[in-house]
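User: what does the whole thing look like in 3D?
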Amino acid sequence: AQKVTQAQTEISVVEKEDVTLDCVYETRDTTYYLFWYKQPPSGELVFLIRRNSFDEQNEISGRYSWNFQKSTSSFNFTITASQVVDSAVYFCALCSMDSSYKLIFGSGTRLLVRP
Amino acid sequence: DTGVSQNPRHKITKRGQNVTFRCDPISEHNRLYWYRQTLGQGPEFLTYFQNEAQLEKSRLLSDRFSAERPKGSFSTLEIQRTEQGDSAMYLCASSLEPGTRSEQYFGPGTRLTVT
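Assistant: Here's the predicted 3D structure for the full assembly of 230 residues, as structure tokens:
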């Protein structure tokens, strides 16, 4: 069975601090995809990034960066110099061909960035 | 392209009533997914369509739930004889043919409250 664990329920930081959101996953599939989504107070899930299991290269996009490590089954998300607008719930998710590409979500991490 | 849209955004109904939600996916996307999200949890898969064919249903989808996607365009999700436990956010997502472009784009959701 596939599973995604986000152990951090809630994180509170002061603006301009760096923050890392942890994600650990379980799957027996050799080909799979990992995702991060942002859910602001408005409720709509916003796609942030997709990573393929065969590509362990880390990625940076502006203030966002992602660290994918197959050896530890982790796909962590770092926000550098956080801003109040980053306040949201962040979900890590997993899918694979063997699971019909349906997304398996973690329980989410609520990030509060205080001014 | 206006993204995934869902209607209504909010629905309040009395227990025992039937409700129907609509989802309009991104036009070129042939996959359409329904998820349910309860407070403090990540979304959970309900069902998905490849074009007009419904290919998988979760055990969460009791026989009171039915989904359709006529002509492979918009989709409807109907809940018959609603129960208080059906109160949740119902999310629709669409994607291209999965694989290297498997990211799903979500609509704003329909929040159902059963009184």
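In plain terms: DSSP finds no helices and eleven strands in chain B. Chain B has a mean pLDDT of 93.
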